[in-house]
Structure prediction request, 570 residues.
Amino acid sequence: EAFKDIKLEPGEGEEKKISKNELKRQQKAERLAKEKAEKAAKKLEEAEKHDSAEKHESAKKEEEEIDPSQYLLNRCEYVKSLKAAGIEAYPHKFQISMELPEFIRRYSHLEKGQKLDNEIVSVAGRVIHIREHGKILFYDLQADGVHLQVMADASNYQGDFADITSKIHRGDIVGFTGIPARSSPKNNPGELSIIPHHINILSYCLHMLPTHSLKDQETRYRQRYLDLIINNDNRNTFIIRKKVIQMVRSFLDTRGFTEVETPMMNMIPGGASAKPFETHHNDLNMKLFMRIAPELYLKMLIVGGMERVYEIGKQFRNEGIDLTHNPEFTTCEFYWAYADYNDLLTITEEMISGIVYEIKGSHKIKYHPDGPEGREIEIDFSTPWRRLPMIASLEEATGEKFPADLYSEEAKVFFENLCHKHHVECSPPRTTTRLLDKLCGHFLESQCINPTFITDHPQIMSPLAKYHRKTPGLSERFELFINHHEYCNAYTELNDPFKQRELFEEQAKDRAAGDDEAQFLDENFCTSLEYGLPPTGGWGLGVDRLTMLLTDKNNIKEVLLFPAMKPILN
Prediction:
């Protein structure tokens, strides 16, 4: 009763009634406002990420444009900062599911734009190039001699994409886990790729890599690892080298030969005419020599009843370094009981021509003896090969009749005069053996482009070879020359212990005259001959030089992973 005269405004003291249309309008407005706010937040986040990525990219470009020493310093400091933060900069393990060649073989069938979303694979290798196209980063991944494109973008990545990609530099070893795919550019069929959803940096390249190629020979030989990183095609040289050795080994194995190993250090450097390296055995307090050839040991095995033996390995000779000589080099030597140099001539043609055909697909090869920019020659390995008897061919070339007794002082004077007449240089000591060798190089080796056998050397030049059965004073020996260089040396082995001692004594005279390449008397070897060495053929091949021919290299350093180099002072 007391409140009956009070008038209330409409809606006061009770809930306002809202129409359905008004409610819908309000809800829509709230939704749109919320969406707008979310879009603005997302746009801000993307802008921040983009700015961050741009800053990282800019920093990376600046790094690559600075001095290499500063680049190294920056990278070292970065890795140290990771370690200080407790982050493992060099992980112990990354489990790959396949190697790059297998990835390429398995997925090369993919068509343009095709992805295999249900196949997750993990690969790893060295990042050689990095490029950006729109929102996608492309990495050129190199491993096992092949390349694979990595097509990385934030939409497929599970993690902080900008952060991980900002840390990857050229040369880094990186593992990628993702799906196989083929890219879909507009004007080509696309490139086989992996689209990663996880990326792991496995090892940092602290040094700045050369941008395009590495041509400086000094750097390539001293830092072969860098040469192989940048000039990936050079890997093929050493693949061919491996094939040459495999084929030599297979050729001999299928013919009943046994591969053996003989000592690298010897009390006497025997088996060849060369200056040895010396070393010292502390416990025995004695001087030892690095081997110059395995010949004498292998022939002792023939005496012991191992009638077909061979060894592929290093020899060491303390001699000059040039385009075809390195102080340590690889040879194959085999010894074959009941064979002679005629058998060896045949088997040499069969082996070498077969290897050439297997690797090159033809018996005729192109070769650049002066380097890749120089003249091109053709070398024909078709058999049979030319044969030049040494003395008869030299007599024909010089128009002179040679002395019958090559051991005489008169013969030495004759060859000195002959060298002088034809302007053939021979540095001291001017022994008959060295004078003959220089004349042979001047007149005969110079005409050997296609494979050519120089045969029937004077016995004075061949202290381990058996005397010629038809021509006194000569030996049953041959050397194979190709493009003016020696590739094989072989002979019917001397198995007469009395004659062997006599020839060793002649070598001792040359050594006394100053020829430090003359052979030593090996009493142990001579004793083994007294137990009986069967008629035997012995043969040696220079593996490095054959590889040079088959890879079109004119420098032996190109076919040796780590050739001998002069040290860099300081």
